[in-house]
Amino acid sequence: MDSVTQAALGAVVAGAVAGRKCSPKILLAGAALGTLPDLDVLISYGDPVSDMVKHRGFSHSLFVLLPFSFLLSGLWQKWRPTRFSFSQLWLLVAACLVTHPLLDAMTAYGTQLFWPINIPIAVPSLFIIDPLYTIPLLLVILASLLWRDRIAKLCRAGLTVSMLYIAWSVSAMNVIDNRVEQQLVGTPLAGQPVFITPTPFNTVLWRVLVKGEDNYYEGLSSVLDGDTEIDFLQKPLGVWPKELASDHQKMLEHFTGGFIKYELRQSNLVASDLRLGMGEQLAFQFALAEKDGEWTSIDPVKVESPRGRLAQIPNLWLRLLGNQDIDANLCHVSECPKPDVPLASR
Question: pTM of the full predicted structure?
Answer without folding.
Answer: 0.89
